[in-house]
Amino acid sequence: MGVLLCNGGITSSFVRNIEKSVDMPLDSDVFRVPTGYNAPQQVHITQGDQVGKAVIVSWVTQDEPGSNTVLYWEKNSKHKSSAEGILVTYKYYNYTSGYIHHCTIKNLKFHTKYYYEVGIGHTVRKFWFRTPPRVGPDVPYTFGLIGDLGQTYDSNQTLTHYESNPVKGQTVLFVGDLSYADNYPFHDNVRWDTWGRFVERSAAYQPWIWTAGNHELDYGPEFGETKPFKPYTRRYHVPYRASKSTTPFWYSVKRASAHIIVLSSYSAYGKYTPQYSWLEEELPKVNRTETPWLIVLLHSPWYNSYAYHFMEGETMRVMFEPWFVQYKADVVFAGHVHAYERSERISNIAYNIVNGKCTPIKDQSAPVYITIGDGGNIEGLANNMTEPQPNYSAYREASFGHATFDIKNRTHAHYSWHRNQDGYAVEADSLWFNNRYWNPVEESTT
Ligand SMILES: [Fe+2]
Fold it and tell me: Which InterPro entries match (predicted)?
């Protein structure tokens, strides 16, 4: 029997009630503007350097510029330090942004709880975060995975499930497509503001590591908006310079025992392009003795057996997959397809245009590919799959949800995917990852 006639892994028989995903109305609780004149809103944090000793704090003041200062202090300390940030604004068609503040707090201690305050006078708002432990090979750390979130009732359920998951995520790896403001006429940027207020309840307290998706492009030449990524880059700063990147769309951070590489599906990646050159320089720098876990984030999946966005990730796969096998990446997380899928460890790098070798094969040096674009946005679920399920596809299901990647030490990490219809503790799909550098044994996918 030929490969094409074989069924692959599991297509879940779970049947979800397919209802349309609708955006929460503007007067929803989750979008509420904090009280007080010019109160800071849309507060969010991300890693601010290469190793986790810095944090970028961002927020918006709507009425006037206000203060750029962040006050911060260690738990149990009376001494408050301060850091000065910068202010940006932008116009988009007929929308004018509030005052967007970005402030990098540096030289923090590892593994420490800090409180921080933004705003002045009667509208000071206080939050907290924990810095990660010092980078090292056996440092346990738990990442959450969310993609294509949007701002529907389903999005809210996804975020609630992530927050309530007993496997407590410490940092979100976000695989792109944030607000879906571009689904509104003229990409109504008010929906970027509501999204910022919606995710504040998590993003103000733990870093969200950002990846750019197609809904961040906001390319609208028909109404004069020709500069791609304008709202995204004004609102979401990332520490790209720390990894010698020249733009925010691709960069890397180390956090605990993981080296995380963020790539851009919507920037050039052909040979000689800046992204190609950066990745070529970056991969040899990954030190698996320091950071055993090599995690890649990108938006458009390379291995996708849904009928939606079929083959869109193919050109990037052709360019970069040999490197991911050579450098033994552990896992590649993508979004874009509004469903869930996990691959076997496979590669498809033998083809050279004349030899006909263009079938994915089992490859224990290859990463597992996970599509986690199931955050719950307004575009609804991708429920059409290509049939039969390809051999390389280990599990696929069209449900909304999130995942966690729970690193235990240099050899093992427990991965699990949670669908929104289940209780907070239920794992709908899970796998023990064996580190590709320290423990490259075959994983059992059943
Ligand atoms: Fe997308």
Answer: Calcineurin-like_PHP, Metallo-depent_PP-like, MPP_PAP, PAPs-like, PAPs_C, PAPs_N, Purple_acid_Pase-like_N
CA distances from 298 to 59, 249, 251 (A): 25, 10, 11
What lies within 8 Å, CB to CB, of 410 at 6+ separation is 137, 138, 257, 292, 435, 438, 439
Task: Give me ligand 1 centre to Cα 36, in Å.
Answer: 36
Q: How much distance in Å is there from the Cα of 373 to the middle of ligand 1?
A: 8
Quote the pTM value. Answer: 0.97
> Dihedrals φ, ψ of 373, to 5°?
-85, 30
Please list the residues that pair with 259 across neighbouring strands. 254, 294
What is the DSSP-derived secondary structure letter of residue 220? B
Residue linked to tokens 């529907």: 152
Distance, CA of 378 to chain centre: 18
Q: Using alpha carbons, select from 429, 422, 431 the residue that is nearest to residue 160.
A: 422
- State the catalytic residues: 309
User: Mind listing the pLDDT tens digit for each residue in 237-296?
Assistant: 999 999 999 999 999 999 999 999 999 999 999 999 999 999 999 999 999 999 999 999
Q: How far is the CA of 176 from the centre of ligand 1 (A)?
A: 7
Spatial CB neighbours of 266, under 8 Å, sequence gap ≥ 6: 212, 213, 214, 216, 217, 228, 249, 299
